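Limitations
The structure tokens in this dataset are predictions for the assembled complex, not deposited experimental models. Users should treat interface geometry with appropriate caution, especially where small molecules or nucleic acid strands are included. An illustrative entry is reproduced here so readers can see what is and is not provided.
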Amino acid sequence: MSSAESLILIESMINKAKNQFSEDGHLYQLWGWVVFICSLGQYIGMRFLKIQSSYYVWLLTILAVIYMVFYLSRNKKQRKVVTYTDEVLGATWIAFSIVLLLTGFILAQVLGAKFYTVLNPIYLSIYGIPTFISGVVLKFRPLKTGAVICWGLAVLSTFIPVAEHLLLIAVAMLFAWILPGYLLKQRYNNQSVN
Amino acid sequence: MFKELDPILHTPLRLAIVSLLISVKEAEFTFIKDKTNATAGNLSVQISKLKEAGYIDVVKQFKENYPQTICKITPEGIRAFETYVKNLQSYLNAGN
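Predicted assembly:
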């Protein structure tokens, strides 16, 4: 094997590993739709149906968590390769989930019943963080754009009535997780074909 | 003065395996087989040689009653690969 052949071989193997996308967008779609349905469901319940306890719709997230745990454990058993990208993104989304829970807890402790006035603007800002990091790491522009839209909506939320904040969450989900989720699925399927 | 290229790495299949593993955290035997287009027997022999040299770690386990082999490059393997590439470059530079 000549020096040039060795270099070509190294390059081709590194490229094969580099083009390995394990992200199929499934969890982006799942959480995008769950949060979209919950935020819109609560909004319609409060605004049009006048149901005060319509926030119970968020209990749907418990079902989503149970499904996600099952899905991730099945996925872990099936995957044939673990990339550094997988590791970084996994840690990012775990940190995001913890920050989301902590923020809700801290705001409720500090602001009491008024926590609801700032919860969604802050959540919109936080949604943008893992979405942007995922976009950069996966080199996937729709996620980066989705993150910027989240941040834009966070700013917008300070100018509109609190009652409408849930609509912004639904819009954020469409652009940050649902649409990129379907596009990621498309990229993943194209890779499987090639 | 040219340094000799590491004979452990200077064979097509072993170099392909290490190049693949340097880019990922860990990979299953079947993944490496798919990417290198090697036969299971030949791949198995070359993986054993890399393991003996201390360049990769091999973990054998059972997944849903089927045997599974997971390979991961070691720090020694990373060093050997970097040295190999450096030496390779010196050969190529001398040729230019």
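Some entries come with short summary sentences. For this one: Chain A has seven helices and one strand.
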